[in-house]
Amino acid sequence: MNGPLKMYLMKPVVRHDLPVELPNCMYTMKNIHTVRNDIAITDTGHVSTTKENLDTFDQKNQAMPDMAALVARQEQILLQLADLKRQMLLLKENLKGGSSGQKVSVSTFMATRFDTTDIVINASPLHPPYFLEVLQKIWSQRLYLNIKSYLHSTISELPNEAKILVNKLQSALHKDGELPQLTSALHKDGELPQLTVRIIWKDVGPHPELVVSNVPILGEVNILRYFARLTSSMNYETSNPFELDSVLDTCYTLIQSKTKTDRSAAMHIINKKLGKSQWLCNRSEYSIADIATYSSLKQIPQNEINVNLTKWLQKCEHTFVN
Amino acid sequence: MSEPAVDVTEKGDSKKAQKKEAKKAEKAAKRAEHRGNTDNAQEIVNEEDVSQGKYGNLPLIRSDTNAVKREFTYIKALNKDLAGKVLWVRARLHTVRARGKQSFIVLRQHEYTVQAILNVSETVSKQMVKFSSNITKESIIDIEAQVAEVAGGVAGCTQRDVELVVSQIWVVSASASQLPLQIEDASRPEKADDAEGLNIRVNQDTRLDNRVLDLRTPANQAVFRLEAGVCRLFRDTLTERGFTEIHTPKIISAASEGGANVFTVSYFKGSAYLAQSPQLYKQMAIAADFDKVFTVGAVFRAEDSNTHRHLTEFVGLDLEMAFKYHYHEVMLTIGDMFTAIFRGLRDQFAREIAIVGQQYAVEPFTFLDPPLVLTYDDGRAMLAAAGVEVGPEDDLSTPAEKLLGRLVKAKFDTDFYMLDKYPLAVRPFYTMPDPNDSFTCWTNIR
C-alpha cells in the first residue's frame, strides 16, 4: 500500500498537439492576444511563448551591460538625425512654395483656397448655371470639377435644358468614375485635385446660390467673382476691374429682367461694351465678364440676341466649351 | 246586526262610489280636454307644418330588403360641377347653429366638411328648422339637398365653393347630448403663442380614454392615412424592384437576435417569446434563394426605457437583399426606396400632410433625388467646422448626430441623407471591413 497507486491511463480530454484549422471563408480578424510587446503569436494560441527563445544577441547582451548601453545610445542618435532630416525637408518645401513653382501652385490651388472639397450650388432649373461648363473647361488643367446633380423635393421634374447641361458636365467623367486622362506632363493620373460641386435643383428664382458658409452667395456673377478672387483666374482684378464690374452688373439685371424690353436694354449696354473688339471691354483675352455674359445670354430666348453678340457667342462657345 | 251593517256599507259604498265616479269623470273630462287640446294643437301643426314627413328620426336600420335605398354622395366629391343637383348625403353632424329662421349645419365625413343650410320657406317649416337645430353633435344624419355654389367661399369647411340647401333631414343614429370631448377642441391648432385664439385643449388622457372620438379629428384621420400610405409605398416600391414580401413568425421559441430584450408569453405548457426582429427569417429567406425580400409587421421589444427611440411595440419595415459585389448596391436600393416613398407622399398625400400641418405646425419635409450620400469623414469635417470634434474612430453621440442633421439641412436643404463608411470600431463584430481602409466599413442611414 506504500507509494502512489497505479492508475489506469485516461484518454486526454483535450488534445493540444493537433493543428487547428482556421476557417478561411471569412475575413481575418486581428488577434487580440498579440498586442503585448508586438510579438506575433503564430501558433494556435494554446501555448504561451517563453523567454527561452531569445536570440543569441539578446543572450549576450544580458551578459554585457556596457554593450547594451552603447546600442541604446546609438539608436537615440539615429533618431535625432532622422528628426533633423525631416525638419530640413520641411524647410525646403516651404521655401519652394514661396518661389511659386508651377507644381506647388497647382497642388495648393485647391487645398489652401477652398477650405472644402465639396461645394453646393442651388440653382433653378429654369436658369441652369451654364458658367459651370466654362469653369470646368478653363480649370481643366488645374482642378477637376466633379459635378453631382440632385433634384430637390420642391421640384417634381428636371426640364430638358437642365438635363442636357448635367449630362454635358458629367460626360467629362468616365463611365467607371475615373478622372479624365490629362495631357499635361505636370500631373500623373489622379493627381489632379478634385472639387465636388453638388448642384441642387431647387426653386430659388433666377439667381443661383452658392453655399459656402451660413450666408449663401447669391447670383451667378457674384459666384463668379468669388471663384475669380479665390483662384486669381478669369483676369478679373488684374486691371480695371470696375469696367468689368459694370458688365457683370448688367448681366445680373439681364437675368433678373422679366420683359423683352428690359432684356434688350441690358443687351444693348453689353453690345456697346463689346463693340468691334475681340472680347468684352476691349480686351485681348477673355475675362470674367465674358464668362458671365456667355452664361446669362444662354438663359434668355436665343432669338432676342443681335448679330454682333451672336457672333461673339459662337466664339465663346468655341473657346469655353469645345 | 248584519243588515244595518250592510246598509252602512251600502251607504258608504255608494258614497265612495259616487266620489270615485265623480273623480273619474273629472279625470276623463280633463283627459278629454287635454286630448282635445293636443288634437287641436296637432291639427294646427299639421296645418302649418308643410314639411311633415321630411324630417324626423329614422327607424332602426335592420337590413330590411323592403327599405328605401338611396344613393349617397361623398362629401369629398361635392364641388361646383354638381351645382343645382339634388342628392343625398349621409354624414356626421359636426356643428349646428340656429339663427332665427335659419339653421346652419356643418357635415363631416372623414376629414372633409361641408356646410348645409335650412331656411324657413314654403317647403321648409319652422318646426323642421327647430328639429334640425336640436340634433346632437356627432349624430349620423341623412340629408337630401340641392348643391348651391357659394361665391364668397365657406369659411371653415373643406368644400369651400359649395353648400347644401336642405330639403329633407333624418337622424339615422343620434349621439349622446353630452360628449366627453368636443371634436372642435381636439382639432384646434397647437400654436405655442396664440393669445387671441381660444385656448381650449383636450388633454392626452381624455383623448386616449375616448380614442374613438379623438380619432375623428381631421389630423388623426390624415395621420392614419399617411401611415397606411407609407406602408403601401414601401410595398409598391420594393415589389417594383423585384422584392418578395414574406410573413415571419411573431411567436418564437428563442430570442432571435441579441441586444433587445424579449417579452415572454405563456405557450400552453411552456413559454414562448414575441419576436423582436424578423432578422433571422429574412436571412433564412436570402439563404433559401429568395434574393430580395421584405416584410411589414409588428415587432416587440421589452425595453423599459422612456425615450423617443424606444418603443415596446411598433410596425417594422424590413428588407434584406443579396448583392453581387458591393454593399452600395444595397445602400442605394435603400436610398432610392426612401426617395420613392418621400416622392409618393409628396405627390399623393399632399392633402393629408397639409391637414396634419394645420394642427401641428411642422416644416415641410425636404429631400434630394438621388439621395445625398456623405462619408463619415465628411460628416466629421462638417462637425469640426461647427466646433464639435469627433475622433476618427468615435461613434457620433446623439447631440452630435442632431447637430450634423441640422448642418446638412442648412447646407444641402435635405432632411434625408446617408452616412457611409462608419468606423469599424463602433460597428458590431460581424461588419465587413473596407478592403482599402481598415478603419471604415458600413453605412448608417439617418
Q: Could you walk me through the main structural features you see in this protein, from its secondary elements to its overall organization?
A:
The complex is a heterodimer of chains A (322) and B (446). In chain A, strands 2-3-1-4-5 form a 5-stranded mixed sheet. Chain A has a domain at 108-321: Up-down Bundle (Glutathione S-transferase Yfyf (Class Pi), Chain A, domain 2). Chain A has helices at 56-63, 65-98, 102-111, 131-138, 160-171, 220-231, 241-256, 260-274, 288-297, 307-321; strands at 118-123, 144-152, 194-201, 209-211, 217-218. In chain A, α9 packs across α10 (307-321). In chain A, β2 (144-152), α5 and β3 (194-201) form a beta-alpha-beta unit. By secondary structure, chain A is α/β, with parallel strands linked by helices. Chain B starts with a helix and ends with a strand. The longest helix of chain B has 47 residues, at 2-48. In chain B, α6 (218-240) packs across α8 (328-348). A 5-stranded mixed β-barrel of chain B has the order 2-3-4-6-5. In chain B, strands 7-11-12 form a 3-stranded mixed sheet. Chain B has a 3-stranded antiparallel sheet with strand order 8-10-9, with no helix packed on it. Residues 1-12 and 38-45 of chain B have low confidence and may be disordered. In chain B, a hairpin with a 2-residue loop joins β3 and β4. Chain B is of the alpha/beta class. Chain B has helices spanning 2-48, 126-133, 183-186, 204-209, 211-214, 218-240, 279-287, 328-348, 350-359, 376-385, 398-412, and strands spanning 55-57, 86-99, 102-109, 112-119, 140-149, 162-173, 244-245, 251-252, 264-267, 270-274, 292-300, 313-321, 368-369, 372-375, 417-420, 444-445. At the A-B interface, β1 and β2 of A face α8, β13 and α11 of B. β2 of chain A pairs antiparallel with β13 of chain B.
